[in-house]
């Protein structure tokens, strides 16, 4: 698998493995499924793995760390996130987590983007992962904590990066406005952008992507399927967009795009991956998977050849803006 290099010298495989599902996202994942997904990813050339304390109240970090410990540490890139500290929740072991993960609530999350919170979160993550270092640390959803992120969290991460404790500083969000501010005002290395630059939504092309190119900041493009709508060849009613039921107009648009891709022998999910990798700011596309079979399917979609004239046809039919048609890599 091809790799792309960040300005700090980290080499990320073009496809990464997102591990929210290792934290029992929506339903239970077994230890064997998680381990099998990592092994399949490794066999397929994936060398970038992303997790977070938020995912299953630390379960994803524990499972990913255990699966990666059998592989040479210098051969892969690992990222996790800060901003949600995990604390004991007495009595919670008899209740389900009140978020979207099927785990018990013996632990609870507390927002904390302070410098001390950042350092504590990293220490806790290292313990759960059982690994000796973290390559990339992202601020996780700092949407309502932007000023504290700029004043405290990012400077704390930059200091740790400059001391060699971590490899790169990032922020992960589902919007492009605040990440653009981070890019312009701070010494950040990477933005993990979810859902705002896809076949259906190119909002970040107006602000974040140009700023990232100007400042040499890499974009890790998550949510390439917009949480589900672009994950199937022919989206049906009830498909999700940004984790809620997609409106009929978006389902219709997705199927219109699919009709064009099929004329070129390309499926909608294949086109979804190929489209975002055309942009020169994008350094990796992590895709979530629960099982080895799902990992294999995602890599096969990535490997599928996509003819260049597909993008022009999508533009000619009004399904992509003209600025997104020109080859960009």
Automatic annotation (TrEMBL):
InterPro entries: AKR, FDH-like, NAD(P)_OxRdtase_dom_sf, NADP_OxRdtase_dom
SUPFAM superfamilies: NAD(P)-linked oxidoreductase
Top-level taxon of the source organism: Bacteria
PANTHER family with a match to the protein in the record: GH17980P-RELATED
Domain (NADP-dependent oxidoreductase): residue spans on this chain: 14-314
Protein's name according to its UniProt entry: D-threo-aldose 1-dehydrogenase
Sample GO molecular function, one term: oxidoreductase activity
CDD domains tied to this protein: AKR_FDH
GO cellular component: cytosol
Gene3D superfamilies xref list: NADP-dependent oxidoreductase domain
């Amino acid at each position: 698998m091809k790799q792309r290099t960040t300005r700090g010298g980290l080499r990320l495989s073009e496809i990464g493995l997102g591990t929210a599902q290792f934290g029992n996202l929506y339903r239970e994942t077994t230890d064997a499924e998680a381990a099998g997904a990592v092994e399949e990813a490794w066999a397929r050339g994936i060398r970038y793995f992303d997790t977070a304390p938020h995912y299953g109240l630390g379960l994803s970090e524990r499972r990913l760390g255990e699966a990666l410990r059998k592989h040479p540490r210098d051969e892969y890139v690992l990222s996790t996130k800060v901003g949600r500290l995990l604390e004991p929740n007495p009595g919670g072991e008899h209740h389900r987590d009140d978020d979207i993960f099927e785990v018990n609530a013996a632990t609870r999350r507390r927002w904390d983007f302070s410098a001390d919170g950042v350092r504590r979160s990293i220490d806790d993550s290292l313990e759960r992962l059982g690994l000796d270092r973290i390559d990339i640390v992202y601020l996780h959803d700092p949407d309502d904590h932007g000023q504290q992120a700029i004043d405290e969290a990012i400077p704390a991460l930059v200091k740790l990066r400059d001391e060699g404790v971590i490899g790169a500083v990032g922020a992960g969000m589902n919007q492009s406005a605040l990440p653009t501010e981070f890019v312009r005002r701070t010494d950040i290395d990477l933005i993990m952008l979810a859902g705002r630059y896809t076949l259906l939504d190119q909002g970040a092309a107006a602000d974040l992507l140009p700023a990232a190119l100007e400042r040499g900041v890499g974009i890790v493009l998550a949510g390439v399927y917009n949480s589900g709508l672009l994950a199937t060849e022919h989206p049906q009613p009830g498909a999700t967009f940004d984790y809620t039921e997609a409106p009929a107009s978006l389902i219709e648009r997705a199927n219109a795009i699919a009709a064009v891709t099929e004329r070129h022998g390309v499926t909608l999910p294949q086109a979804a991956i190929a489209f975002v990798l055309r942009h020169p700011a994008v350094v990796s596309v992590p895709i979530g998977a629960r099982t080895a079979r799902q990992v294999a399917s995602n890599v096969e979609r990535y490997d599928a050849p996509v003819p260049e004239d597909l993008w022009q046809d999508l533009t000619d039919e009004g399904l992509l803006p003209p600025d997104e048609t020109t080859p960009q890599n």
